[in-house]
Design brief:
The chain has 429 residues and is an alpha+beta fold. The protein has 13 helices and 23 strands. The chain has a five-stranded parallel beta sheet, covered by helices on one side. It has a five-stranded antiparallel beta sheet with strand order 12-15-18-23-20. Strand 16 and strand 17 form a beta hairpin. Bound molecules: adenosine monophosphate (AMP) and glycine (GLY).
């Protein structure tokens, strides 16, 4: 099969790595890709939201399947664009329809969906500029901290958790009246704060049947001990010790099944990944958010634990035959450590030469924000630069391998968290 993979991050490098191992792969193209993806396929200079250019490329190159990495093309309706086009309508797409992508694209939509299908989530109300007075009143009924979420996509920054009512009111005003997140905060979801420990569960679905992939925990803050600013993710661990069989069974019965059935009942076409951000509240799972794609860096942690042929699974998704597939999981632990640019998630430089990638042994290096320079050099090209994934028989063993290999890589400003997985090693339920 000829496959076009859309995206340019560590997630897409992990997809490219995994797909390239499939016997069924003929040609792999990545648009636009990075310096790492070109080891597994051919990078194509097309933006992920340029649907016309994608169409042209797909037709010219006899592409059989398009795997959509990031949410943007999905929220913008790439699947619907393909489905209504005579030349494209039979091509398999891994990713949901525009309506399905609203589970990520609109917090209000996803809360209404969860309520309609009795899926456990925090209590909430949604407000707009006109109802701001009611929003202030609603805040008074809640206990701190307060959870305020911009309805639309806000590059992962749309959730604020103020600790006092004064801060919450000020934040609400800046979101609704001063368009703090632009159009994304035209509506704001205010919800109850859930106390617990977070994890992510990933599901691959063909719209009827599904496979639950290994769970992972990511580390969103820039600083050790979960301090400082939010980032796209500084590392991840799989499996998650507290997500035992019992807990995952609850997730399946209370969340996964009602979500897949709910999509069907609502006639929302959904083939692809569903990423469920969960809070474990005293042993019970609650949905914090849905994403309609795989996580980054969770993909770099989860895919190395999947032994089955990913392309085979994707093909079955397209044919609505996923029930006939088996998912084989590697029992070992994986730990991913993200190396980032100095200054990230604030301002940072690009174009800095990276040395030592070839010295890494016994770990997988996935490129995230990199670009090829002259004479086979690799340069930084983003905030999150490289993801290092290692296997181990314990979190500690895998993490130590990733940390020691992180030391072998050099570029000016290199930073990574040295405590990935540490909380899980200490976690006692
Ligand atoms: P989101 O972008 O929806 O994943 O939210 C960002 C982060 O805010 C999550 O990873 C959680 O740490 C936190 N968060 C979101 N909703 C809640 C909630 N209801 N209770 C506690 N923490 C939350
Ligand atoms: N690592 C979180 C995300 O991909 O949204």
């Amino acid at each position: 099969m000829n496959v076009l993979l859309l995206g340019s991050g560590g997630r897409e490098n992990a997809f490219a790595w995994k797909l390239s191992q499939s016997k069924r792969l003929n040609k792999l193209f990545i648009a636009p890709g990075n310096a790492g993806t070109s080891a597994y396929g051919e990078n194509i200079d097309i933006a992920v939201t340029n649907f016309d250019a994608i169409k042209h490329f797909v037709v010219e190159n006899a592409i059989d399947m398009v795997v959509v990495g990031p949410e943007d093309p999905l929220v913008n309706g790439i699947v619907d664009y393909f489905r209504v086009n005579e030349e494209l309508k039979n091509i398999t797409l891994i990713g949901p329809s525009k309506e399905g992508a609203r589970l990520e694209g609109s917090k209000d939509f996803s809360k209404i969906f969860m309520k309609r299908h009795n899926i456990p989530t925090a209590e909430y109300k949604t407000f707009n500029k006109e109802s701001i007075q009611k929003a202030y009143d609603f805040l008074e009924t809640l206990k701190p901290p307060y959870v305020l979420k911009a309805d639309g996509l806000a590059a992962g920054k749309g959730v604020v958790i103020p600790h006092t009512i004064e801060e919450a009111r000020a934040e609400l005003k800046s979101m609704l009246e001063d368009a703090k997140f632009g159009e994304a905060s035209n509506k704001v979801v205010i919800e109850e704060f859930l106390q617990g420990i977070e994890l992510s569960v990933f599901v691959l679905t063909d719209g009827s049947s599904y496979k639950i992939l290994p769970a992972a925990k990511d580390y969103k803050r820039i600083g050790e001990g979960d301090t400082g600013l939010n980032t796209g993710g500084m590392g991840a661990v799989s499996p998650v010790s507290f997500a035992n069989e019992d807990f995952i069974k609850k997730v399946e019965e209370r969340i996964v099944k009602p979500t897949i059935n709910g999509l069907k009942k609502d006639q929302i076409s959904y083939q692809g990944f569903l990423f469920i951000g969960l809070m474990n509240v005293a042993g019970d799972p609650y949905v914090i958010e849905y994403n309609v794609r795989m996580g980054d860096p969770e993909t770099e942690t989860v895919l190395p634990r999947i032994k089955s042929d990913l392309l085979e699974l994707f093909d079955a998704v397209g044919k609505e035959q996923l029930h006939g597939q088996t998912l084989e999981i590697d029992p070992r632990t994986t730990v991913t450590v993200m190396l980032v640019a100095g200054g990230y998630p604030g301002d940072y430089e690009k174009g800095i030469q990276i040395d030592g990638i070839d010295d890494v042994k016994e770990s997988i290096v996935f490129h995230a924000g990199t670009i090829s320079g002259e004479e086979e050099t690799v340069l930084t090209n983003g905030g999150r630069v490289l993801a290092i994934t290692s296997y181990g028989n314990s979190i500690q063993e895998a993490a130590e391998k990733s940390f020691s290999n992180a030391e072998k890589i050099n570029y000016t400003g290199k930073y990574y968290r040295k405590d990935i997985g540490k909380d899980l090693i200490a976690y006692k339920g």
